[in-house]
Amino acid sequence: MKFSSRKAVVAALASMSVLAASACTSQATADNGKPSASASASQTGSPSESPSPSPTVDPVVWKSNVSEDATGVAVNTRVTAAADAGDLTQAALSYVSKKGNTVEVKGKLEAGTWTAGDLLEPGVKYALALSAKNSSGETEKVTRTFRTANLTLDDQIYVAVSPGDGADVGIGMPVIVRFDLPVTDKAAFEKHMAVTSSPAQAGSWYWLSSREAHWRPKSYWKPGTKVNVTAELNGVQSGRLYGEMSRTSSFTIGRSVIAKVNLKTHEMNVAINGKNVKTIPVTGGMPGFTTRSGVKVITDKVTNITMKAETIGLKKGEKGYYPDTPVKWALRLTNSGEFLHSAPWSVGDQGRRNVSHGCTGISNTNGAWVYENFKIGDIVDTTGTDRPMTMGNGIADWNLSWAAWQKGSAL
After folding, report:
1. Is 192 a catalytic residue?
2. Which one of the listed residues 214, 266, 357, 359 is annotated catalytic?
3. The domain at 61-147 falls in which architecture?
4. Domains in the chain: boundaries
5. If I label 78, which of 54, 281, 299, 408 is the partner at 20 to 30 A Cα–Cα?
6. What is the pLDDT of residues 95-138, one digit of tens each?
7. Residue range 154-254 in CATH 2.60.40.3710
8. Would you tell me which CATH number, out of the four given (2.40.440.10, 3.40.640.10, 2.60.40.1930, 3.10.50.30), belongs to the domain 257-399?
9. Would you say the CATH fold of 257-399 matches that of 61-147?
């Protein structure tokens, strides 16, 4: 019985093997004799796969030298911005002025970093808007704000530049930058002051004092030169003070006008564009009021003025004192009171002897001609006396050698 039972079991297992083999090697058929769809699919289909996870996109990391919501930011900060895990494509910096106006700050995006074109204004709120593309090419944007430190006028240095924009001046006119408070770090300021011209001419700055700097070319300007001045001093630090604003000016050099005054021969020869056009009899300063010799530059033109003895230090009753005197035509040459002016009262002495209180006197007729043909910045080169021009008394810049002039630079 045991044998028969085992035989039955083996037979049953064999039967199951045959069925299994038949299922693996035979096609199931539909009622129409064709393979069923389910059978065909079970044979030709591939195993099902799980969907791939989306790649992770790292967010843009914004970078700036000014922290978000920062306060008391120093005005000598030049804002920069960049992006990690992305490419910075655009940046815009602006502030709301104390008058409520929105002011855009220009800048430059280069090699992935944006740099502001100017330093900061005091006591205002700035907005820095940035755009960048992340690693998937999508644009991300952010706007950050910050506020600058407040400054009083006593903390800031006012800046003035001359000649002014659009001026037409003579070949001897230097660029002059003046400050209302002393500049203790002249080098820091000079690094942000530049003069360019067309045609180009070599030149240099010279600091007359902590409140005034001049720039002149090595030799007189070429007639027709276009000059551009930039004094990017807004926010520039000098000791405990900061530049209050930036300044620019563009002006033109006119024709060459040079007057040569000889107080030994008592004549003034005028050359325009290198050609002698007029010889004028003159009188200079009498003993005790000697006219200064040297290269002078016309700094002002006035008509119908009254000359007063007090302006040259004379008091009533002193030797040389004179009553108030009306003058029709006058061109200022020094701060101390020298003019080239009409002096009809001394026509008999003009061309013969020196009788003035230091000015160069000419007739009314010649005064009108000079006033018409000379401009601010033209040259009056005086010789024949032993009293020299001194720096700071008007524009005496051309009396220094080029080597001496260059030593006046802070750089």
Report:
1. no
2. 359
3. Sandwich (2.60)
4. 61-147, 154-254, 257-399
5. 408
6. 999 899 999 999 999 999 999 999 999 999 999 999 999 988 99
7. yes
8. 2.40.440.10
9. no
Q: Which of 214, 266, 341, 357 is catalytic?
A: 341
pTM of the model: 0.81
Do the Cβ atoms of 262 and 280 come closer than 8 Å? no
Structure tokens at 264: 């030994």
Is 341 among the catalytic positions? yes
172 vs 167: CA distance, rounded Å: 14
